[in-house]
Amino acid sequence: MLDRTTQPEVKAMENIDIAVPRRKVMPNGIPLHVIEAGTQDVVRLDILIGAGKWQQTQLLQALFANRMLREGTKRFTSAQIAEKLDYYGSWLELSSSMEYSYITLYSLNKYFASTLEIVESMLKEPVFPEKELKTVVDTNKQQFLVNSTKVDYMAQKSFASSIFGNQHPCGRFASAEDYDCITSSCLKEFYDQYYHSGNCNIYIAGKVTDEIQKLVEYTFGNQSWGFADRKISLKPYSINTTPDRRVFTEHSTAMQSSIKMGKVMIQRTHPDYYKMRVLMTIFGGYFGSRLMSNIREDKGYTYGISAGIASYPDAGVFLVSTEAANEYVEDIVKEVYHEMEILQNQLVPESELNMVRNYMLGDMCRSYEGPFSLSDAWIFIQTSHLSDSYFAESMKAVQSVTTQELMALAQKYFNKEKMIEVIAGKAL
Fold first, then answer.
1. Which residues contact 30 (CB under 8 A, 6 or more apart)?
2. How many other C-beta atoms lie within 10 A of the C-beta of residue 212?
3. What region holds the Peptidase M16 N-terminal domain (predicted)?
């Protein structure tokens, strides 16, 4: 008989077995990463192009060059693309980041050849039609105008500019006028420079059959396409952090204020990063964190507050973020520094550290349990310029970090005097 009065023994996780992609370089030089996992007859194709905000010469250029791929090609109109994808039950996502633009396709295996034909046309022969461009730009501009009235967007923009400077790609933000400057010709110029087989990576995950892999290789990897001889390099930029400790943006009718606090921090490649993740989780990285327990549960100042290390191509950024009623702003800032000081001067209890260990290890397992999440994980490794040992090193750090090491890290990196406080809201 099962004794339900006795709690099951909690066993520490020893290792996580993460499937490594099969990798090959196709005849035209494009790296192909194949992740065979899952039992359902469905696959996900990810095409990565090194063409993000960092590479653009005009604000919004990377965003709209990527977004317009589905709005018309030499073979298909935007309506035909939408109808065909809908007919085959496929799902297409287009997105861009600081360094990359992404084309992501979810498709049933039996229709993969048909949907791949559409993606091939989108990638190799878009036409950037003026009529569709105007509609897309106008829609995005209206959304931008709405977002510009929100305190969280205002604070996010001000924080990034304060950390990086407004000449750095991470600190530059578009205005309404920049939307009006987007033309078909400027997008075509960006496309010609970056969308080619010499600047591309392909991932395919799911129940990948030999036939599906051969289709991908034949479609994208058999011959060079685009202006593949164009050399790609990332231009270096200087980080010019503001000397101001407090940056305030007025929103006279705001009922709440958005608070962003932080500073330039170590990157993922730094030796301290792995164990620093544990400290940041304790500080503000999960629902039971110090900041949540104090500022949400005990004081009731906010519904949620978080802290973490945001990663950018040339820097990490320590960031604390929350929204609260205007009258609680100063109290929240005070309590954030108070929790930082506690971690600098008091050892984290072993019971709390063990709880965070279990949380982080469990989160790792959930993140790598399916074929598409595995694909996300390996794409993350590539786009973050990390080695394959990142997952093992992360797990080792979580398992081995000591309370003394956490205190030393807090003393080293929780520099109150270097923190920038960015507030967007109503002045009191």
1. 197, 200, 201, 202, 220, 221
2. 20
3. 39-146
State both tokens at 134. 């105007």
Selection from 381, 370, 377 nearest residue 43 by Cα:
370
Q: Which fold has domain 22-220?
A: Cytochrome Bc1 Complex; Chain A, domain 1 (3.30.830)
pLDDT at 11: 66
How many angstroms separate the CA atoms of 255 and 252, rounded? Answer: 9
Structure-block tokens of residue 109? 């295996």
Residue in the structure block whose two tokens are 């989108």 = 122
3.40.50.300, 3.30.830.10, 2.60.40.10, 3.40.50.1100: which CATH number matches 246-425? Answer: 3.30.830.10
Query: Which residues have CB under 8 Å from 360's CB, separation 6+?
Result: 277, 278, 281, 398
Tokens of 138: 């106008």
Percent helix, strand, coil in the chain (nearest 5)? 45, 20, 35
The CA distance from 53 to 174, in Å, is 11
Position 99 pLDDT exceeds 70: yes
Q: Dig out the tokens for 73 from the structure.
A: 């090609």
Q: What is the pLDDT of residue 25?
A: 97
Model pTM?
0.91
Sorting pLDDT into bands at 50, 70 and 90, what band is 10? Answer: low
CB 225 within 8 A of CB 125: no
Domain with CATH 3.30.830.10 in the chain: 22-220, 246-425
**Cβ contacts of 166-174, under 8 Å, gap ≥ 24:** 167/237, 167/238, 167/240, 168/237, 168/238, 168/239, 168/240, 169/53, 169/54, 169/56, 169/98, 169/237, 170/53, 170/98, 170/312, 170/313, 170/315, 172/53, 172/59, 173/59, 174/59, 174/60, 174/144
Q: With a cut of 80, say whether residue 411 has pLDDT above it.
A: yes
Q: At what angle do helices 112-124 and 78-87 cross, to 10 degrees?
A: 160
Cβ atoms of 134 and 87 closer than 8 Å: no
**Residue 6: phi, psi to the nearest 5?**
-110, 125
CA 187 to CA 361: how far, in whole Å? 43
